[in-house]
Amino acid sequence: MTAIKIRIDFEGERYIGHGRIQLLELIGEHGSIAQAAKAMGMSYKRAWYLMDEFGAMFADPLIERQHGGRGGGAAKLTPFGADLVRQYRHMEAQALSVFAKPLASIEKHLARPSKSDPKPAKKPPQSARA
User: Which part of the chain is the HTH lysR-type domain (predicted)?
Assistant: First the structure.
């Protein structure tokens, strides 16, 4: 399935990308940074660092954290965090719609996957950037 993944670059090396949005979505879904990190195959430390870095870009917080304790820590999206995810996914959907015809034209020229190689090419590790 063809997808468009958007990266929005702001001044000063600040950006919003697919990986950061996916991490936010998973935090909202799981209620935990640790569980979101696990779902993405990244370390808890990396996810925590990414959320600190991503959150520092905005005047409003993206997530609310409840630190450990008896039941462990928890995290949930703030209204702004949930809205950011919604807006980003909306932009992706619009881009896919706008570029549907040229994408269809390009897809017609794709080679068929080889039967000897049933797995698609691996993506670069997300540890470099999310």
Answer: 21-81
